[in-house]
Specification:
Helix content: 10-25%
Shape: globular
Number of domains: 1
Radius of gyration: 19 Å
Order of helices and strands: HEEHEEEEHHEEHEEEEE
Number of strands: 13
CATH architecture: Beta Barrel
Largest sheet: 13 strands, antiparallel
CATH class: Mainly Beta
Distance between the termini: 45 Å
């Protein structure tokens, strides 16, 4: 691992252990106003995993975002060891900043065991290598954005993204609420399944609620909408590597009441369904727009 941005993310997800069930994490400023939700997801999953023995791996996560996170302050993760059974373990994680809960989640772990197998087929879309890299914004386009977004979009992040159905975020048209995005880390990391799950939990928050904006011709770059993640659910089905191409197949079945619902399926390049996600987010038309 030689890429400093990937090394920074590995360190960010590793956390500092304060007590047996207490961890502290820092934040990476990616250009958003508040702490990126995927970071809190990945750190909470990492904290929970560090309290589980017997090589049990996470199979599901259900989380709520309660308050916006402060990028300039550390986040403390308190893990409750709810249950350790013969096959499953459950952990509850509370994330705290400035004495208040900003996030909580429940994570379930399971020993590895055989069972029935089936899955839906991967969508028939071009492979990642057949698609162009994400378009780099021109200086003129960057100047239209707030300074923080300029810094984020003008620099390379830890994940490479390739869009099957790219759209102009400055002039978005109304589209069906479906999109497919390939993603992978830009550098290789170790073989720990725990680390790879935390990495994909981090990446799973990118573009998810954005799928609910597609039918309305709005974009997070236009400033016409207020967006915030309300909850996030994730299921891990099969082994994968975050540093190899994964296809994120996304759709939004409904939006109403200033909320949008989005769902995702994550496939390996060889067609295995490795994870699923769901998220509801606040979607409000910005005042004066």
């Amino acid at each position: 691992m030689t890429n400093p941005v990937v090394a920074e993310l590995v360190e960010l997800l590793g956390l500092e252990r304060l007590e047996d069930n207490l961890f502290r994490g820092q934040s990476r400023d990616i250009g958003t106003r508040y702490v990126f939700g995927g970071q809190v997801l990945g750190q909470a999953l990492s904290a929970a995993q560090q309290t589980v023995e017997d090589h049990r791996g996470a199979h599901s996560l259900h989380a709520y975002f309660l308050r916006a996170g402060d990028i300039g302050a550390p986040i403390v993760y308190n893990v409750e060891r709810t249950r350790d059974g013969r096959s499953f373990s459950t952990r509850r994680v509370i994330a705290i900043q400035h004495g208040e809960q900003i996030f909580n989640c429940t994570v379930s772990f399971q020993i590895e065991e055989p069972g029935f197998e089936h899955q839906m087929a991967m969508p028939n879309v071009p492979q990642a290598d057949a698609l162009p890299s994400r378009k780099v914004l021109s200086p003129d386009e960057l100047e239209k954005l707030p300074p923080k977004l300029q810094r984020w979009l003008g620099s390379k992040g830890p994940f490479e993204l390739r869009y099957v159905e790219p759209r102009d975020e400055f002039n978005p048209g109304k589209l069906d609420p479906v999109q497919h995005i390939w993603f992978r880390l830009v550098d290789r990391i170790g073989d720990s399944p725990t680390l790879h799950r935390a990495m994909v939990a981090y990446a799973s928050d990118f573009n998810l609620i954005g799928s609910a904006m597609l039918p309305h011709g709005i974009s997070w770059l236009t400033g016409k909408v207020q967006l915030a993640s309300l909850d996030h659910a994730m299921w891990f089905h099969r082994p994968f590597r975050a540093d190899e191409w994964l296809l994120y197949s996304l759709d939004s079945p409904t939006a109403q009441g200033a909320r949008g619902l989005a769902r995702g399926q994550i496939f390996s390049a060889d067609g295995r369904l490795v994870a699923s996600t769901a998220q509801e987010g606040m979607m409000r038309l910005a005042e004066g727009k």
